[in-house]
Specification:
Elements: E1 4-7, H1 11-23, E2 27-33, H2 40-44, E3 47-52, H3 63-73, E4 77-79, H4 89-97, E5 101-102, H5 107-114, H6 116-125, E6 133-134, H7 141-151, E7 155-163, E8 166-171, H8 177-192, E9 197-201, E10 206-215, E11 221-233, E12 236-242, H9 249-265, E13 270-279, E14 289-295, H10 302-309, H11 313-321, E15 338-345, E16 347-348, E17 354-355, E18 358-359, E19 362-364, E20 371-375, E21 382-383, E22 390-398, H12 401-413, E23 416-418, H13 424-431, H14 434-437, H15 445-453, H16 461-471, E24 479-481, E25 484-494, E26 497-504, E27 512-514, E28 520-524, E29 527-533, E30 548-550, E31 555-560, E32 567-568, E33 573-579, E34 582-587, E35 592-597, E36 604-605, E37 610-616
Length: 618
């Protein structure tokens, strides 16, 4: 068994691997960039090594530095996680050449499945159904247009080296083909260094269904059933589940058998995923499901498979990499219940899913029976602009699909994050969409209804009243009503917007928590708001009416012109924020004193971050 493991990754997957390795008694070594010096995976590992500057291309993507860290710490093996170098055959070979154990498939398997056209040809030879299309070497534009016409529109143009939705174009007619091809090739060359494309038939109501496979060096290959990852936004998975809705036993058997054949065709070792595209216009059937690609690594959504099978896939990876046979045979594996996973991101759906970065002053995850949180951050940590903005994977298990769906929704509703924005409310809306609730989902659902799903919720009256009561000045007498508790209406600012709230009487349930400014944080429906008293002075220069100077958008503080305790006058320059390639000057809204100064030159801030607090002088 491996005794020491270097994890060539960061964030929640690094923490996930550390968790299993610790249980197995394996010493763990983390690597980190400048931005991740105090990250959770660094804190949780037994040892940590700095490997470079914050941009991934200067740290996590530099294989030589990772190998140097392994040699310096005496690591016996390297686990790549997913993303970064996990599907880089050259890096995998370099690890092996260095005499280390590579926790992943052989470089030859990565290479065989790395190019979509070659992989599809190989799969067709292995008897795995593939989508109708052209996957040849001829890249002449006229020839490709002729092939597209033979296939029949609509068609997809896909970069053979593509992934993550890049290098892909949907073409509805022959008139649009030439421009789409040129655009796709430009993007493919820029993103992957390879502009070769393939053409395939576009499935009008596609479902993304994938099968988890696992192989060892003793000739064993098994599947751990399927996952449905059809709920996507711009080709990025949003919510995944296992098993797939509407999958009957006969179709599952055919699909999973095809996945095993695919893995055996490349002598696959370790964890991998065979991805299929299914025609979702009717009931699922084996003759309407086709091979799409193989991911030669652990998947982001692997926890839902773990939840329904009771298998720790990272433990299996480490055992197989150590030379052991698979712990279970195919007949030992079965589906138990249903699981769903939602990707909680630091982004603002109401503002076009703009990334939200900065310090996590408040981070509370919802809980539920059968619930699980995989995260790489903690309260007080920073969401960096350098990497994927995932805060956590929120996973729920239930006896059936509805129970898993409701539990996941409840966990997301009880999640509270501040001041960083998240997509929690968007995820709840997606879970409760009538089509998703009924299992009628395809990859276009969010594209069709995304505007409604992204609507920003408002806190309930009861929660607002409870929060407002805590901010009510003690010296103001409320109105009186016969045989009723005294009540009055007062004005407040809710995230900078003026609202009227009835205050007084019986204390409402819920409410808020103290915020790092003159207000309270209100958390409900997976969303957090800052509630502050309103002043007659109104708003000015990036401040709300309470004198709180808030960042109008994500950006970088490039200059601070005042000090805490300093007297300022209305309109006086306080600080400068660089955002959207422009400089924004924030000024004092009225005469007063800088009672609090959180802005630091050089620091990245998220939208609505408190930068300074001005207290009015008489």
């Amino acid at each position: 068994m491996i005794t020491s493991l270097l994890i060539a990754n960061r964030g929640e997957i690094a923490c996930r691997i550390i968790r299993t390795a610790r249980v197995m008694g394996i010493r763990t070594i983390a690597v980190h960039s400048d931005a991740d010096a105090d990250a959770l995976h660094v804190r949780e590992a037994d040892e940590a090594v700095h490997i470079g500057a914050s941009p991934a291309r200067e740290s996590y993507l530099v294989g030589d530095r990772i190998l140097a860290a392994a040699r310096a710490t005496g690591a016996e093996a390297i686990h790549p996680g997913y993303g970064f170098l996990s599907e880089n055959a050259a890096f995998a070979q370099a690890v092996l050449d260095a005499g280390l154990v590579w926790v992943g498939p052989d470089p030859s398997s990565i290479t065989a499945m790395g190019l979509k056209d070659a992989a599809k040809t190989l799969m067709a030879q292995a008897g795995v159904p593939v989508t109708p299309g052209y996957m040849g070497a001829n890249q002449d534009a006229v020839f490709l247009a002729q092939e597209a016409a033979k296939i029949g529109y609509p068609v997809l143009i896909k970069a053979v080296a593509g992934g993550g939705g890049k290098g892909m174009r949907l073409v509805e007619s022959g008139d649009a083909f030439a421009d789409a091809l040129a655009s796709c090739k430009r993007e493919a060359a820029a993103s992957f260094g390879n502009d070769h494309v393939l053409i395939e038939k576009y499935i009008a109501s596609p479902r993304h269904i994938e099968v988890q496979v696992f192989g060892d060096r003793h000739g064993n290959v098994v599947h751990l059933f399927e996952r449905d990852c059809s709920l996507q936004r711009r080709h990025q998975k949003v919510i995944e589940e296992a098993p797939a809705p509407g999958m009957d036993a006969a179709t599952r058997e055919a699909l999973c058998a095809a996945a095993v054949r695919a893995a055996k065709a490349v002598d696959y070792v370790g964890a991998g995923t065979i991805e299929f595209i299914a025609d979702g216009s009717g009931a699922l059937s084996a003759d309407r499901i086709w091979f799409m690609e193989m991911n030669t690594r652990l998947q982001v959504e692997h926890p839902v498979t773990e939840a329904i099978t009771g298998v720790d896939l990272v433990e299996w990876q480490l055992r197989v990499a150590s030379g052991e046979p698979l712990p279970l045979a195919q007949h030992d594996l079965a589906i138990d219940g249903w699981a769903m996973e939602a990707r909680l991101y630091a982004e603002d759906p109401a503002k076009g899913f703009m990334p939200s970065i900065g310090k996590l002053d408040l981070l509370q995850f919802g809980e539920a029976e059968g619930g699980r949180i995989d995260t790489g951050v903690y309260e007080g940590a920073e969401v960096s602009p350098f990497y994927d903005p995932m805060i956590a994977k929120v996973i729920a298990w239930g006896d059936d699909r509805d129970e898993a769906r409701e539990r996941l929704g409840a966990m997301l509703e009880d999640t509270a994050v501040w001041p960083v924005r998240t997509n929690a409310a968007f995820l709840v809306n997606a879970l409760r969409h009538p089509d998703f609730a009924a299992g009628r989902v395809d990859t276009g659902l969010i594209g069709r209804d995304g505007e409604a799903l992204a609507v920003d919720p408002m806190p309930s009256d009861a929660v607002l009243q409870a929060a407002a009561a805590s901010l009510t000045p003690a010296g103001i007498a409320p109105g009186l009503r016969l045989n009723a508790p005294p009540r009055r209406k007062a004005w407040f600012l809710l995230d900078g917007e003026k609202v009227e709230i009835e205050v007084g009487g019986a204390q409402a349930a819920g409410g808020g928590t103290d915020a790092p400014s003159t207000g309270v944080l209100v958390a409900e429906q997976g969303r957090a708001w800052l509630l502050t008293p309103w002043r007659r002075d109104g708003t000015h220069g990036g401040a709300d009416g309470s004198g709180a100077i808030l960042a109008p958008m994500p950006g970088k503080v490039i200059a601070v012109d005042v000090a805490e305790g300093q007297a300022v006058t209305r309109g006086q320059k306080l600080l400068t924020l660089e955002a959207m390639k422009m400089e924004h000057t924030l000024v004092a809204p009225f005469d007063g004193v800088v009672a609090r100064l959180d802005a630091v030159a050089g620091r990245q801030v998220q939208v609505d971050a408190l930068l300074a607090q001005i207290e009015e002088t008489a």
